[in-house]
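User: Structure please.
Assistant: Input sequence and predicted structure:
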Amino acid sequence: QGDIELYQQICRLFYDAAPEKLLALKEHCDGLAHAQVKQISHALRGQSGDIGAQRLTQLLAKLEEKADQQDGTDYTVLVERISEEFQVLEQALQNEVFETSSESKRSNES
């Protein structure tokens, strides 16, 4: 039970913080601010890896690599794919992780 609750907390932290970070990532990509793109994509990559979001982690790793090479040619495409993948993940977290959390609390209260 403790491991599940810890995982849910980690997911909640990611879920709450990621939209703002993704917005900042897009803005830095638009401005070709490679250092900031690298920093944010690295942080998001680690956090998405922590919750097992492999596709998102892989996309963020590609973006981080491009930023490290100071190559912004694929930024727009990668950010679009990252945003789409985050939306899929967001829905999965709402339906599978957070819903399970609510059900678990209700059954414990009974």
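The chain has a mean pLDDT of 91.
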